[in-house]
Structure formats: C-alpha cells, structure tokens
Amino acid sequence: MSTGAWFVIGAVVLALAFGAYRARTDGHVRRTPPSAPSAERPASVLAGTPWEQDLGERATLLQFSSAFCAPCRTTRAVLSDVAATTDGVRHVEVDAEQHLDVVRRLGILRTPTTLVLDRHGVEIGRAAGAARRDQVVAALAAVPESA
Amino acid sequence: MSQLEQIDPRGPQFTAGITAVVLAAVLLTAPDPLAVGILAAQAVLFAWGAFAGVQHTPLAWVFRTLVRPRLEAPSELEDAAPPRFAQGVGLGFAVVGLIGFATGLDALGFVAVGLALVAALLNAVFRFCLGCEMYLILKRLTAPKTLTTS
User: Fold this and answer.
1) In chain A, which residue's Cα lies nearest the Cα of B127?
2) Residues A137, A44: contact at Cβ < 8 Å?
3) Are strands A89-95 and B78-79 parallel, antiparallel or unpaired?
4) A92 touches chain B (CB under 8 A)
5) How many angstroms from the chain centroid is the CA of residue B136?
6) How far apart are the C-alpha atoms of A85 and A132, rounded to whole Å?
C-alpha cells in the first residue's frame, strides 16, 4: 500500500478513536481527590472572586463558558434547571474570557467546564464538555453534607 | 460582519465531509503533481471560508440548494465564527502541506495533510469543531498574564 494510503487509514483510526473517547468522557464528572485528612480544609474556589458570596447552601454548580460555544448553552440549560429544582444548589456561570486569572488558577482548558463545589466552595468534581443531567445529579448526591 | 451570525451546523459538517474526501484523494495521489493541484484547490476553498465566512463558500451554496431542502429544520443553530476559525486552521495545514510537497519534503506534506484529514473527519463524523476547542486555550496563551478581574 502507498504511503498515502497508510496516512488515510491512520487518520481515520485517529479520528474515530478521539471522537469515541470524547463521546464517552464529555459531561462525565471526574471526582476531585480530597486533600489529606490532616490538612486544613482548602479555601473556597471562589475566594477572592466576584462570586465569593454566591455559594449554594448545599452545593454550587460553577460553569465556565465562552462566546461562540453551542454546548455552553446546552450546559446552561441543564445546570440552571437542576439548580432550580434542587434545594440548596446554585448555578454560577462565568465568562472564561473575562476571567482568565480564575481560568488559569483552576486549570480550565475547555468550555464548557462545570465544577461541582460543596457548601464551602471546595471542588469535589468537574466535567468538561456539555453537562449531562444524570452525571450532575449523581455528583450532587455525593456532595458531603458534613464539615 | 455581525459577531452573532447563526448558521445551520450541518453546513460546516457537510463541507467537512467533502473536505475529508478531497484530502484523502490528496494523500492517495501524493506526491504526484496531481496531488499538489488538488491540495492547492482545497487551500483556496479553506481561504474562501476563512476570509468570506463559511456561509459564503461554494460548498455552502451546494448545501443550501441541494442538501438542506431534503433535511428537517436543524434542532439548534451555531455561531459562524468558530467554523470560520477552523477554516483558517485548515488553510494553515494545507499551506504547510503544499510547501512540503513542493520542496520535496514529502514527509512534511503527508503529516500536514494527514492532520487536516483528522480534523475534517472529526467535524464530519462527530461535529467536533477544532476551532471552538482551541479558542479558550489560545485566549489563555495570548492574553497578558497581568489581566486580573477580581
């Protein structure tokens, strides 16, 4: 087979593999490992930001969006609906472009990215790509109530 | 140009499908002069989309006239800017590919066109938009570090 044919096959395999990977991981909430038990509770992710006081009583769904981002609209709809129908949960949406300092500090690479925060504003999980309702609800159920 | 122009996302997807076939043809005929000719034509199409906007290209016209009338209305629209940026990225890869094949650096040509083919396939099959994905990363890299808002 010609070199070119190998490249076509390689490109197809790469595209299918990456596409399938994204289809599986988009919207999947990855649990953030808790800090060591002996350490002090980490500061709120929103400390020092304009949304410092916007934490929900139980949890906060922190969404990073940017312009020209269709999945961000879908995510906004899902998260605001969950927040509206779940006690103690708030939805905070941040324009990533306008707050690059926060974006860099939190290691946000894509929009939309959703961070699930506990009542102290500590990150307990995050999901990149369009949010999935079942994933968000499951993550909220796992938010620790105490401490 | 309005920054909030909304387009049917299946338009760029259709164009990406045609682009994928064209780029595969380039790879299969490279490094023959025929491949260089096809790649040059594709580069012109990329440039057309990047500078005039994706809705104003010949393939967009084909989509509007021949394909879309056979489809149901789209479930949602998307902004025209990210696909346009993606065309610019495609143009970059095509130019590098042309330089590679024209100067005898065939490996460079194969890799550049191969990567462009991956991007076109991701768009055509998964409606994955490379431009949209790179947008924030580029912003992070190019904005001044001293920019603080809180």
Assistant:
1) A19
2) no
3) unpaired
4) no
5) 18
6) 16
Interchain pair B122, A15: CB under 8 A: yes
The ipTM estimated for the assembled molecules is 0.86
Q: Which residue of A has its CA nearest to B35?
A: A4
- Segment A70-123, tens digit of pLDDT: 889 899 999 999 999 999 999 999 999 899 999 999 999 888 999 999 999 999
Tell the residue number behind the tokens 């994204």, with chain if given: A22
Helix, strand, coil content of chain B in percent (nearest 5): 75, 5, 25
Is A104's CB within 8 Å of B140's CB?
yes
Q: How far apart are CA B85 and CA B89, in angstroms?
A: 6
CB pairs A-B closer than 8 Å: 106
| pTM score of the predicted model | 0.83
Of A19, A66, A99, the CB nearest to B126: A19
Strands A30-31, A123-128: pairing is antiparallel
Query: Which pair of tokens denotes residue A37?
Result: 């038990």
List A residues 97-116 in contact with B (Cβ-Cβ < 8 A).
Answer: 97-104, 108-111
Q: Which residues contact B25 (CB under 8 A, 6 or more apart)?
A: B35, B38
Residue in B with minimal Cα distance to A109: B137
Band of pLDDT at residue B28, cut at 50, 70 and 90: very high
